[in-house]
Every structure is written in C-alpha cells, then in structure tokens.
Design a protein that fits this description.
Length: 281
C-alpha cells in the first residue's frame, strides 16, 4: 500500500471514529480490510481506496471504519467495577431515588453486548431490592454489526466462558447447539442504539451510572477531553462513571474527579464556591 493510500484511510477512520492509525500500525489496515476487499470483490486494497475516494459508497466507508474498531470484550470484564456497583454505588444511588424509583445506566461502546448484559444480570440478582424499580439500560456503539449481534444475545462457548460465573450461565442462558442464548428477561432490560460518542450527543440527558471502559485509550488527547466533557454532561450530579484500568481523567478535564478510594470510578467534581471565586477576583 502506498503512503498516500495509508494517509487517506487513516484520515477517513480518524474523522469518522476518532481512532488514530499511526504509520507503524499500517499493517492493521491490510489485516482488517482484506476481508472487505474479498467480500466486495474489489481485487485489492488500492481498488478499495479508489472506490472510497469516489465518495459515493457510504456503506463501504462504514464497513471500513467498523473493521478498524476493536471489539474485544467479555462478561464481567475486570470484575472490580461490577463489585463496586453492587456493594457501594447501587445502595447509595437507590437510597436517594426512592421517590422516582428509577435508575438509568449507559454502557458506552458496548461492543457485542457482554458489558450491558453483565449489568442487567447483576441488577436481576438484586431483584428483591429493586422489585418495583424502573431500570433503563442503554447500550451504544458505533458499529452496526456488533449491535446486531448484541441484540440477538447469542454467544459461543468461548465467549460465555470468559468471565461468566457458571452460576449465572446456568441461570440466565439456554444452550442451543454449540451456542448459548441469553434469557429474554435479561435481553429485554437492555436497549441497544447506534451512537458515535466522538460525534453524537449522549443518548439521554442524564444517567446515574455510565460505563465507558477501554475506549479512551484509542484516542488522542484533545478527543479524550471532548469525550470526557460529554460524559460529565450526561452524568447525574451524584452519579458514577467507570473508566478502564489504564484510563484516567487527570490532566484532561476538571469536571470529573476520582471517587475516594475506588479505583476506576469517577464522579462530578464540585464546582468552586461562588464566594471563593469573587474573593479570587
């Protein structure tokens, strides 16, 4: 692939998804775009680039961007956030929402659905405490292909054995041949929507809990700042944001701060007192 084609593809992907493909990662373009070339019978990646340069095949551009997104996920990934939600944040949030008895949760960049379904199972296990509550779990991703898989709720043996406690597998899944289908009661708890967090507004104005884990690591600093500001704007004043273990808000935004003693959990930072601002002025 010539440098001009690499630059064109990198720019297209960055503009549509925010993902930066550096020159030393150009091999990923070959690896991930070759299946599209074969499926479309384009003959070569330069031919694919030529078709994209024409600007008339938006479906092809979408396929290219989706091919470059990373969809690595598993049930109850890095179990700590789920443990914190169950033991610390869920009791605190429900205690102050007794009048509305409503919880709104957003799984941003949900991939094939393991994260939001994990949350749904966790809440289902807490059913006696949430018997008459309205639970709204919204799961979003940029890629239609992974959202379609997530909506079906069907996973391979390999997928369900990664992080899934056997007790929950037996309780909430039905084996169909070599695959496992999630129970309709869990599937109905999650609403999947297409959303590009780098360009679109959050799907709802206010969430009590937001999961946005292992997404920021793919973006440049300026885009990280914009996304964190969007997440802060979508988070309830007493809500919690979960980021990935290698992600942080430090040096990126003043709107969020770490939840005391809870690694990977963040909350809305208090605003400076108006009197202090006047005194400083």
């Amino acid at each position: 692939m010539i440098p001009a084609d690499i630059e064109f593809l990198s720019t297209l992907i960055r503009q549509r998804s925010g993902i930066s493909i550096s020159s030393d990662k150009a091999y990923l373009l070959d690896n991930r775009l070759t299946p599209i070339v074969e499926q479309r019978k384009l003959g070569s990646i330069p031919a694919l680039v030529a078709a994209l340069r024409g600007g008339r095949d938006d479906a092809l551009a979408r396929d290219v961007v989706e091919a470059m997104t990373t969809n690595e996920t598993l049930f109850f990934r890095d179990s700590k956030p789920f443990d914190l939600l169950r033991t610390e944040f869920l009791p605190a949030l429900t205690a102050v929402r007794l009048s509305s008895r409503t919880l709104k949760i957003w799984s941003c960049a949900c991939s094939t659905g393991q994260e939001p379904y994990s949350v749904a199972m966790l809440l289902k296990e807490e059913a006696p405490k949430l018997a008459d509550w309205r639970i709204n779990i919204v799961a979003t991703d940029i890629a239609r292909s992974v959202l379609n898989k997530a909506r079906k709720g069907v996973y391979t043996q390999f997928e369900v054995q990664r992080g899934m406690p056997i007790k929950l597998l037996v309780k909430y899944f039905k084996q169909i041949g070599a695959n496992w289908e999630i129970d309709p009661s869990i599937r109905s708890m999650v609403e999947f929507r297409e959303n590009n967090i780098t360009q679109d507004a959050p799907p709802l104005p206010s969430f009590d809990v937001i999961f946005c884990r292992n997404l920021l690591i793919y973006f440049e600093q300026d885009l990280k700042r914009r996304i964190l500001d969007k997440l802060a704007a979508a988070l309830a004043p007493d809500g919690v944001l979960f980021l990935g273990g290698a992600e942080s808000v430090f040096g990126l935004t003043e709107r969020l701060e770490p939840a005391p003693g809870q690694r990977g959990a963040y909350r809305i930072a208090p605003r400076p007192d108006a009197a202090m601002l006047r005194a400083a002025g």
